[in-house]
UMP-CMP kinase (Elysia crispata), 248 residues
Amino acid sequence: MLRIRPQRLIYGKLQLSAYIKATLTFLHHKTTLFTGNIGSCVSRKISVASTMADSKNQYNVVFVLGGPGAGKGTQCEKIQEKFGFEHLSAGELLRQERQAPNSQYGDEIETHLKNGSIVPVKITCSLLRREMDSSPKNNFLIDGFPRNKDNLDGWNLEMEGVAKVRAVLFFDCPDQVCVERCLNRGLTSGRTDDNEESLKKRIETYRNSTMPIIKHYRTLDLVAQVDGNRSTDEVFADVEKVFKNLAC
Ligand code: ADP
Ligand code: AMP
């Protein structure tokens, strides 16, 4: 599971909205040192980000995509352990934010999670950015993002010159296998969306909104496709090959 740092549990309404404001400030004034009232770590990273001149200073990012239950989280944990990348799960960050006391986005996030629909990018991207900016790591696995065009556009807008997408790891797995795995996971996960009704919508969202993103990255020759319908170890054997060949 995603590692939760104690300080991240206290983020609520004020911190996230201030963070979004800071991000917008950064976008509009890329060279201006931010001196707003958010945490010093975030403002420090933003000022560092604004001076990033070349790609060696950028965050290295591998996006991890696939249907619900395709094994993204499971494989990310193994990659994190073996290759030292930090695993950021968009879904997990949203679930944490939904539970954060006083989060202004809690209800909105909950509705999207239940419907299997996609949370607006300003929220998801800000949560990802906050994690990256406060991490000591430079290499990130971003699991479950970008899930649609809105995500992709929001990412490109915010992260240009800040993060470089090195690869898109795509776990291909039949719908029926994905559904069975999620229903199984739902027996113990306590997730409100691991049920038949939500899963239908999540698979539909994946087909209609996420597959075009994978196609987009194929045109950029960034997709590493792995057959996710095998044992965890067999899948990881292929994943390892991808990461051994990754230049970052
Ligand atoms: P995702 O992050 O893509 O939604 P998870 O990694 O959480 O998927 O996996 C969904 C469920 O399937 C979990 O209960 C997990 O233990 C199980 N699982 C993951 N990979 C495999 C696999 N290769 N074979 C069988 N079960 C798996
Ligand atoms: P996951 O944990 O990846 O299965 O995601 C669970 C749910 O979180 C999804 O069905 C969406 O409602 C939401 N979600 C996850 N990732 C994103 C994202 N990139 N953008 C918006 N919503 C997301």
Summary: The first strand starts at residue 59 and ends at 66. The longest helix spans residues 196-219. The pocket of adenosine monophosphate (ligand 2) is lined by residues 68, 89-91, 94, 112-113, 116-119, 124, 144-145, 147, 151, 193, 202 (CB under 6 Å). The radius of gyration is 18 Å.
